[in-house]
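Limitations
The structure tokens in this dataset are predictions for the assembled complex, not deposited experimental models. Users should treat interface geometry with appropriate caution, especially where small molecules or nucleic acid strands are included. An illustrative entry is reproduced here so readers can see what is and is not provided.
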Amino acid sequence: AQTVTQSQPEMSVQEAETVTLSCTYDTSENNYYLFWYKQPPSRQMILVIRQEAYKQQNATENRFSVNFQKAAKSFSLKISDSQLGDTAMYFCAFMSLQGGSEKLVFGKGTKLTVNP
Amino acid sequence: GAGVSQSPRYKVAKRGQDVALRCDPISGHVSLFWYQQALGQGPEFLTYFQNEAQLDKSGLPSDRFFAERPEGSVSTLKIQRTQQEDSAVYLCASSLTSPRDLITGELFFGEGSRLTVL
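Predicted assembly:
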């Protein structure tokens, strides 16, 4: 079974600075998707960015980018020019492309606080 | 509605009571998922529907948990004889197509139903 590990329970960053959130995963598969989701306090989870494992190019979405290291099974999220609205829980997630299941496997999350 | 709607937002139940949690997905969305999120943890998969068909229920923790989506839209998660370990936020998510389709499969989550079992 796949597992996702987020080793940083909490992180903080000053507004306008850059922060990197770590994620590692374990799988024997070659093709899969990886995601970062943001869960603001008392609000719904939203997709931040996603990466297809068969694409070597790292995904970027405005201030958000990933460092995908397939051999190391690492998928970190970099947030540039941090804003107060980035304060939230961030979850890394894995989706297998094999078999019938289309579920996401989530990590335990990293609580990010952006300080003014 | 504009997004995934869940009700009730908060539910307090006495141990042993039955509860029902409702999810209204975005109109037209084929795929619907239920996840359980315990305090301080990431969401854990419970079950998955494609239209009215329950394609995966491998995450349901016991036979006290039951989910249905009889007409392929609204879904209900029922928990019988609730236990304290059932206390969690129950998240519903829907997508227009299969989540494996990156063009149209983006998952949209509701705000969740927070269940507290006393």
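Some entries come with short summary sentences. For this one: Residues 3-115 of chain A form a domain with the Immunoglobulin-like fold (CATH 2.60.40.10).
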